[in-house]
Amino acid sequence: MAIVQDWLPASQENYEKILFWWKLYPLLASFQWITSWYGMGKTSVQSKFNLPGRIAWATMEIPGFTTLLYIMSTLPAQHGIEDLPWQNKVLAGLFVIHYTYRAVIFPIIQPSMSPIHVLVWANAIIFQLCNATCIGSWLAAYGPTTQEAWKAQNWSVVQFSFGLVLFYVGLAANYFSDEELREIRRSELRRQAKLKQQGKTVEKHYEVPQNGLFKYMLYPHYFMEWVEWLGYWVAAGFSCTPARCFLLNEFFAMLPRAVSGGKWYKQKFGEDKIKGKYVIIPGVY
């Protein structure tokens, strides 16, 4: 049963329309270069349009993997596909693994979360729906749906395996980088609680992360997420346009935030505190 006829799940014609516009997302993301404001986290501003961090995060991320699962469970039957190749199922599983952490576990285990502006929240939902529709539709019906079709696009087990390694390396490093940031927040909450007990004024305190990959860069969690989705694209095959679009769209969406964040670190702590650290791309920037 279609939620929105010919759109969710998408007909092939509408899938191609969505994919066409999805390729242009970097143009929209590039508008971040002309503003220093990002409505989430340390560079955001107070606004009556801010939403509670945990609720906003979960509700803007969950539509991604739930949409993909819905498409995977409905679209194949509409095209007479009785069973998808194992490659399609594994790739769908990787997507769900990532977003189970990002959408469900992440907001639960965060010690605290900054408010998220409603415009950021709405944009993230659109991002998730478009991305899940493109990747899910490709996996469910419009990409290779037989072993013969996989072989026809020069696919190999070696390439798939290498992609999986990249994906899991990126996923693990992303998690441990997040955990380092969580530990800083836990320490800050303990410090604030102690000051309150002493009847002292509590002011928000920031520090530069120093452990793990943070020894070498300011935004390893961003970079390793790129590694993760590069691995996904490698595993899916270089002809998988939706996977390539996802990687590029994340790059263009996250790079301006990292650059703005790098400037914030420099202004807040001074160049000496971040000397020797790259912002986001090791050996480059």
TrEMBL record:
Localization terms from the record: Membrane
Membrane topology type: Multi-pass membrane protein
**Where does the sequence pass through the membrane?**
20-39, 51-71, 91-109, 121-143, 155-176
The family database entries (Pfam families) matched by this protein are listed as: Steroid_dh
**Entry superkingdom:** Eukaryota
Q: Which InterPro entries match?
A: 3-oxo-5-alpha-steroid_4-DH, 3-oxo-5_a-steroid_4-DH_C, SRD5A/TECR
Q: Which Gene3D superfamilies match?
A: 1.20.120.1630
3-oxo-5-alpha-steroid 4-dehydrogenase C-terminal domain location is 116-285
What keywords would UniProt list here?
Membrane, Transmembrane, Transmembrane helix
GO biological process, any: steroid metabolic process
Instruction: Report the principal subcellular site.
Output: membrane
Gene Ontology MF terms: 3-oxo-5-alpha-steroid 4-dehydrogenase activity
Q: Which family does it belong to?
A: Belongs to the steroid 5-alpha reductase family.
Q: What is this protein called?
A: 3-oxo-5-alpha-steroid 4-dehydrogenase C-terminal domain-containing protein
